[in-house]
Design goal:
Length: 258
C-alpha cells in the first residue's frame, strides 16, 4: 500500500480553513514521524501494525533521541492521536488492526512539506543542509533554495520556527512542541548563538587545525556540524568511487598494475 493509501492522498487544508493541529508530547510526535516515514519509504508495510510502530519508534537509526517505548505506551499515544483526528485505524489481513496517518489534512501540507516535518519530528532541530539531505530520502528536495521555499510555506502555516538567525548553519525546528518544551529549546539555541558569534572567512585566522583541534564551544556550533555532515557525505561518495574503480580494474585484470 502506498503513501496515498485510500484517504491518505495529498489534500492540504484550503487557505483560511481552521487550524486542526496542536502541540504534542514527545511520544505522540515520534509515533506520527514513524507513520509518515514508513508510508513514504516502505509503502508495502503501510498502514502499520502496533508492533511495527513500536519497532519504528525504538529504532536507533534516524532517531534523536533514541527511545525504548512499550506497546502500551505507543497504543495510548495512538488512541490520543485518533481522538485528535491525526491517526485512523484500518483493518488489515487477518482482521489485525493497522494504523495510518491523516497528516496531510491535519497539518494542511503537501508531500515535500510533510517529509520536512516528519524528519524534524524524528530527529529534532536541524540545520538547513542536514534537513534537506534527510528529508530527500522521503521526497526529493534538489537544493537549498527549494528547501527554503518549503520552509517559508511552513512558517506561514505556523509549523516551522527559526532557532538561530538566517545564514550558514541556520537551525530550524517544527512548532509542535508544548510551550514549556519549546521555551527550553529556544533558550538553549539562544545561548549557543550568544556564545558562538559568527566569524566571516576574511576575519578568521589562518590555521592548519582539524575539527578535533577546535575548542569545544566552536566545535559544537551548528555551522561546524553542517561542515562535518558535508565532509562525511564527500567521504562516502569518494569511497563509492574507489570501490567502483577497484571493481573495474579487477574485471580488466589490472590488479597488479600501478
Amino acid at each position: 500500500m502506498s503513501d496515498e493509501y485510500q484517504g491518505d492522498a495529498v489534500n492540504p487544508q484550503p487557505e483560511g480553513s481552521t487550524k486542526r493541529w496542536r502541540p504534542l508530547p514527545a511520544i505522540e510526535r515520534r509515533v506520527l514521524g514513524v507513520l509518515v516515514e514508513k508510508a513514504k519509504t516502505v509503502p508495502s508495510s503501510y498502514p502499520m501494525t502496533l508492533n511495527a510502530i513500536v519497532t519504528g519508534c525504538n529504532q536507533k537509526s534516524n532517531r534523536d533521541p533514541v527511545m525504548d517505548l512499550t506497546e502500551e505506551v505507543v497504543e495510548r499515544a495512538l488512541d490520543n492521536l485518533r481522538q485528535m483526528g491525526a491517526v485512523g485505524i484500518v483493518q488489515g489481513v487477518g482482521r489485525v488492526d493497522k494504523y495510518r496517518h491523516y497528516l496531510y489534512e491535519w497539518l494542511g501540507v503537501n508531500k515535500e512539506e510533510l517529509a520536512i516535518i516528519a524528519e524534524l519530528l524524528l530527529r529534532g532541530p536541524q540545520t538547513e543542509g542536514e534537513l534537506r539531505a534527510h528529508a530527500s530520502r522521503m521526497d526529493p528536495i534538489p537544493d537549498l533554495p527549494t528547501l527554503r521555499q518549503h520552509l517559508d510555506s511552513l512558517k506561514e502555516k505556523g509549523l516551522i520556527i527559526d532557532l538561530t538567525p538566517p545564514g550558514r548553519g541556520h537551525v530550524v525546528a517544527h512548532n509542535l512542541y508544548p510551550e514549556p518544551e519549546l521555551a527550553r529549546l529556544k533558550q538553549r539555541y539562544s545561548a549557543v548563538a550568544v556564545r558562538e558569534p559568527s566569524v566571516s572567512a576574511s576575519d578568521a585566522p589562518e590555521s592548519s587545525a582539524t575539527f578535533s583541534d577546535v575548542p569545544g564551544p566552536v566545535a559544537s556550533s551548528p555551522e561546524v556540524e553542517e561542515l562535518r555532515q558535508e565532509l562525511a557525505e564527500l567521504k562516502q561518495a569518494v569511497a563509492g568511487i574507489l570501490q567502483e574503480l577497484a571493481t573495474i580494474k579487477k574485471e580488466l585484470g589490472l590488479n597488479g598494475e600501478s
